[in-house]
UniProtKB/TrEMBL annotation, chains A, B:
Residues 12-327 form the Phosphofructokinase domain. It comes from Aliikangiella maris. The active site is at D147. It holds the Pfam family PFK. It catalyses: beta-D-fructose 6-phosphate + diphosphate = beta-D-fructose 1,6-bisphosphate + phosphate + H(+). This is Pyrophosphate--fructose 6-phosphate 1-phosphotransferase. InterPro entries: ATP_PFK, PFKA, Phosphofructokinase_dom, PKF_sf, PPi-PFK. Catalyzes the phosphorylation of D-fructose 6-phosphate, the first committing step of glycolysis. Uses inorganic phosphate (PPi) as phosphoryl donor instead of ATP like common ATP-dependent phosphofructokinases (ATP-PFKs), which renders the reaction reversible, and can thus function both in glycolysis and gluconeogenesis. Consistently, PPi-PFK can replace the enzymes of both the forward (ATP-PFK) and reverse (fructose-bisphosphatase (FBPase)) reactions. Substrate binds at T145, V146, D147, M193, G194, R195, E250, Y300, L301, Q302, R303. The lineage of its organism: Bacteria, Pseudomonadati, Pseudomonadota, Gammaproteobacteria, Oceanospirillales. Gene3D superfamilies: 3.40.50.450, Phosphofructokinase domain. Non-allosteric. It is an enzyme of class 2 (transferase). Homodimer.
Length: 424, 424
């Protein structure tokens, strides 16, 4: 049964940001405006859940309609996000109680939490505890992660755009290397995100539509690195196509579970150098095969690349934000809107729903049948799954040659509590 | 005086490719078609000048009009490029004589050479030697370099697009880091190209339109790295804005001329690791200030990024290709079309001309008054110069979410010589 009392809502962004998480925020804010009899103000957490814990709330009603609309084409987290995982209820019940104290003080009856698996877990616990404390809060999760590792939902908003970025980038770099390979670089290595799952690396494979197209090799976290087979394939590609374009996931591992990135590069001072699997792979090729190489590490560029966002992804990110508010209005609780694939050939999708209890803390790995037999590329099944997710362009507006992204005013809400809370 | 005899033309791409060098090729090929009474076929060198030396010519007349037109939106070098610098006439006269032998065999009277300073030097020498050998060839240079270091011309085609890419990328990554800085990454380092000149690094500064915008710090090859001043500024930025976004040119140097990139990182096997100034700078920040960091190395992604090319750049690349043919038709020789800036406020440009003798082997450095007093950002004069060059978007066509780039058939021309030539 839907609530009748008008209450405020709280929205927070969590974890690593994406090119489209603000499109979800836009969906939440624009939809909440349609329910003025039930939803008062929408407060946002400054720097995510930390803003709730420290009573540092942002009054989104102070933003113009135009600026809210511009969130749909602005990457990053407009209210700030954070990497702050609440402990379990047993370990730190005080945190959850504090959240509810703040929500109560600001008459917040709706909690929209935009994040990955951990965030869904937090939203679930707040829902449960608030009930037992006699101040029930409607908690709706909004899926977001470039890693595409949330269960139940067909895909996670944020993934489609990074997928498009890596596929476009390796196609372009592949063209470049192909034209120079005769006398210069023969092997190009591009490192992409994905510490635990190879979804992003897999997406680069979409660029290879015909034999010989880049990328020729993809290294996944799911497949133990086989140095001999890898070097053989690099050599074969160079001999056959004149060059070899490689995409490596930051999470690529040896058989024993060690990350390739931790191979142990040290700097001039003998300090262990952190990060960068691409140079490790490139150096290996140079040492063993002698080929001239170049490497790139896209890092944040990939997940922030709103200029080349997938239209499908932007649409879905907006839709899950919109659906979250509608779910709350329908009296639903402790659920998350999902993307349901209705058809692949002519891609159609709709919004579904999943209980937070089934989403929390479950990671969706790349299925085995999405990886080619040699472990170094994607299968047609994978291609069929991925392709619709990068479709369509939704360019931001440009001025003076640059994309125009909005910075909100982010005006604070006056504090109501005389208590403070220290973030550990 | 214009030639009357109909002769074939030879076109070659040289050095590092760009997002728009094929637009120059498109300008050459489409314009040559307008002069059928004077220009027979246009042959292209497979892999640049090597194709001429080895008599490996491509018959561009076998390509469809549609494919030629598609060159305007295709990055890389469609006929292959090479890093192959001809020695001086004194050192290797045989190479120049061989070029003229091949040109003579294929009735080539026009030589269009699309490259940087070295290539202009080669074109000049071919012009001079062909004259003295009694087989005069019209030699026209076509400017191309992402480094923007050619003299006389206001800018070099290829630069505007990489400039746009780096400005867009640091803006996007800056938004990303700003939203996460409270609990996560506080310092972001992006490495860009430019071994000898800081033009590309400077272009990133266009993204900083208001106080606090990324990038906060730019490290140029032209300014000796001042570690203390740098660290102080990083710390100031983090304290003032919550984060610090840094762009570093691959050519950034210490006072003694050593590259920062050569600071001496070694891999697990004790081998010196090549390249990557971004991790060096990031590690320095971590060690001295303790801030969490991320870094990106754009490498080839930046110069291949046709998807975010500058419209101004594409237009100018096409125009210099077109002008090269028109110059030849007007009987000019040993010249290069240039971009002449007519107005900056309301940007207007036109094609000018420079003698190859004045272009060859001269590098245009970033002027002193383009670098801010503290040596770590750009001035308004620099901004005024750069801004028009990144203006306008010229997106390639997309299909299935990916940009559609053309691969030419590149059919060989039958050899006429029974001599061969070994490339060293």
């Amino acid at each position: 049964m839907a609530k009748v009392k008008k209450q405020n809502a709280f929205y927070a962004q969590s974890g690593g940001v994406t090119a489209v998480i603000n499109a979800s925020a836009c969906g939440v804010l624009e939809t909440a405006k349609l329910y003025k009899s039930k939803i008062g103000k929408v407060y946002a957490g400054r720097n995510g859940i930390i803003g709730a814990l420290t009573e540092d709330l942002i009054d989104t009603s102070k933003e113009s309609r135009k600026d809210i609309a511009a969130l749909a084409h602005t990457p990053s987290g407009a209210f700030g996000s954070c990497r702050y995982k609440l402990k379990s209820l047993e370990e730190n019940r005080a945190e959850y109680e504090r959240l509810i104290e703040v929500f109560k003080a600001h008459d917040i009856g709706y909690f929209f939490y935009n994040g990955g698996g951990d965030s869904m877990d937090t939203a679930l616990k707040v829902s449960q505890l608030s009930e037992s404390l006699g101040y029930p809060i409607t908690c709706i999760g909004i899926p977001k992660t470039v890693d595409n590792d949330l269960p139940i939902t067909d895909c996670s908003p944020g993934f489609g755009s990074v997928a498009k970025y890596v596929a476009v980038s390796i196609r372009e770099a592949g063209f470049d290397v192909a034209s120079m390979a005769k006398t210069s670089t023969k092997v190009f290595v591009m490192e992409v995100m994905g510490r635990h799952a190879g979804w992003i690396a897999a997406a680069s494979g979409l660029a290879a539509e015909n034999e010989g197209d880049a990328p020729h090799i993809i290294l996944f976290p799911e497949v133990a690195f086989n140095q001999a087979a890898f070097l053989q394939k690099v050599d074969d590609c160079v001999k056959k196509f004149g060059y070899c374009a490689i995409v490596v996931s930051e999470g690529a591992k040896y058989e024993d579970g060690t990350f390739l990135a931790d191979a142990g590069t040290t700097d001039a001072f003998g300090h262990k150098q952190l990060g960068g699997v691409a140079p490790v792979v490139a150096n290996l090729v140079k040492q063993e095969l002698g080929y001239k190489y170049h490497w790139a590490v896209a890092d944040y560029l990939q997940r922030a690349a709103r200029h080349i966002a997938s239209e499908t992804d932007v649409d879905q990110a907006y839709a899950v934000g919109q659906a979250a508010v509608e779910f709350a209005m329908e009296g639903k609780n402790a659920v998350m809107p999902t993307i349901v694939r209705k058809n692949t050939k002519t891609y159609r999708w709709e919004i579904g729903e999943a209980p937070l209890s089934e989403v929390a803390n479950v990671e969706k790995q790349l299925p085995k049948n999405y990886i080619s037999k040699d472990g170094m590329h994607i299968t047609d099944a994978c291609r069929d799954y991925l392709l619709p997710l990068i479709k369509g362009e939704y360019f931001p507006p440009f001025k003076n040659g640059l994309p125009q992204y909005v910075k909100l005013k982010n005006e604070p809400v006056a504090k109501k509590l005389d208590t403070t809370f220290e973030i550990e």
